[in-house]
Amino acid sequence: MKEKLTVIKVGGKIVEESETLNQLLTDFSTIPGYKLLVHGGGRSATKIAAQLGIESRMVNGRRITDLETLKVVTMVYGGLVNKNIVAGLQAKGVNAIGLTGADMDVIRSEKRPVKEVDYGYVGDVKVVNASVLANLIRQGIVPVMAPLTHDGAGSMLNTNADTIAGETAKALAEEFDVTLVYCFEKKGVLRDENDDDSVIPVITPELFEQYVSEGIIQGGMIPKLENSFSAVEAGVSQVVITQASAIHRQEGTVIRKK
Ligand SMILES: Nc1ncnc2c1ncn2[C@@H]1O[C@H](COP(=O)(O)OP(=O)(O)O)[C@@H](O)[C@H]1O
Ligand SMILES: CC(=O)N[C@@H](CCC(=O)OP(=O)(O)O)C(=O)O
Where along this sequence does the record place binding of substrate (predicted)? Predict the structure, then answer.
């Protein structure tokens, strides 16, 4: 029997507000057993870029990352957001280590090829170094991963945090019984975005296609669900999309292969 590991991904709206972040870190600190945290921070990057006079552009939930934007996201995700979370967890007795994909060569990626859209310095994940992460985890260290990867040739690349969480969960599923929880500000995937009580309890790829065509699922929810299906297909035991305050209950929306 494999040991259990919980991978939690927390997004931009939660990490940008100190109160919601602090609550999330408190809840995270009480999850029993092995765990790993992946954070986003897209909203913080957009705000700081604007303060620097840099405009942000998103296509299909991904940021167009030119060289100036790459500098901003490296500072914001790898510095400000990551270190605030690590310090917050240390204050709660969790021995966290902050990592980008370049640290210990944890995640290598490849610059996304230019097709209809040129995303710039955005990386598609090639290899997650599961054994490095597993060794840290088994030593009782909690990895806190920023949405940054590297190309192995000296360049950092910006990678969607939902993808980091999905790919990391998949790689670690060889060694652990992995539960992946995407948490954000809503109660789950909603039938009506303005009605918090319209949680869709279970989503399959077939239902996903239908909801996208009906416009019920859009924007940042699309990469979250695509990564969720990829994770359950690749042996992650359980994938849930839920509210940050409900990470223990894991009610929300459950992702099924079919
Ligand atoms: N059906 C849906 N149910 C819930 N949220 C949805 C839905 N469709 C689109 N969304 C949007 O997806 C967003 C979550 O994606 P994203 O902003 O990338 O999250 P985060 O960065 O917090 O992980 C929600 O804030 C919401 O606006
Ligand atoms: C390539 C790409 O889109 N990267 C994302 C990484 C941050 C992220 O995913 O943050 P959230 O989870 O808060 O949305 C971005 O720069 O917005």
Answer: 41-42, 63, 158
